[in-house]
Specification:
Blueprint: E1 9-12, H1 18-35, E2 55-62, E3 65-73, E4 80-87, H2 96-110, E5 116-120, E6 123-126, E7 129-142, E8 146-159, E9 163-174, E10 179-186
Length: 191
């Protein structure tokens, strides 16, 4: 099977719907496990804030199952906030996070936002510079396929006075001997 046949579909949804609630709860659960995160103390992104004209929530499904979400809080011509980015572990490596970000950026630009702000465990950063790098590495995939070019994509956000605050790297691969993956790093604290 070709991997493209299993590409998740994302759409704007009401944040109160079951698929949306599943993704948002999974987002909070994963943050809780990774960072001992208490979501009741996080910057708000409630149902009203994730409904147009205040904001929106994208949810991706794969085979009718929710596998990811990404939200946008809009503030007129001020920077929009990217919120609640999550992709299910079994859907990582399909480029869904990158597609969420591209879609959220496009929707913010359509509404005249002056840029985007990014929240990390270390805080909120406005007007970050986004840098995308692409490359490929030639690897021996398996005896049948032989050598293949493995695409690499790295997206980095740099903010004035701080430097790198977030990095995402994807290395998709699909063979019996080689499995792709993704890496996300966020600034947890700084002085």
């Amino acid at each position: 099977f070709r991997r493209e046949c299993f590409s998740p579909m994302a759409r704007v949804v009401d944040s109160r719907l079951p698929d949306a609630q599943y993704c948002l709860q999974s987002y909070f659960d994963e943050l809780g496990e990774r960072f001992d995160f208490d979501h009741t103390r996080s910057i708000s992104a409630d149902n009203a804030e994730l409904t147009l004209p205040a904001g929106l929530l994208l949810v991706a499904t794969l085979h009718s199952e929710p596998v990811g979400c990404g939200a946008l809080k809009l503030h007129g011509d001020e920077p929009a906030e990217i919120k609640r980015m999550w992709v299910a572990p079994h859907a990582r490596g399909l480029g869904l996070g990158r597609r969420f970000l591209a879609e959220l950026e496009a929707r913010a630009a359509q509404r005249g936002c002056a840029g985007l702000s990014l929240d990390t465990p270390a805080g909120r950063f406005d007007r970050c510079l986004k840098v995308i790098g692409t490359a490929s590495v030639r690897v021996y995939a398996d005896p049948t396929a032989g050598w293949r070019d493995l695409p690499l994509t790295t997206t980095e956000w740099y903010c004035a006075g701080v430097g790198l605050v977030r990095l995402e790297r994807t290395e998709p691969a699909n063979s019996p001997f080689l499995t792709g993956g993704s890496l996300t790093m966020e600034l947890e604290s700084w002085q």
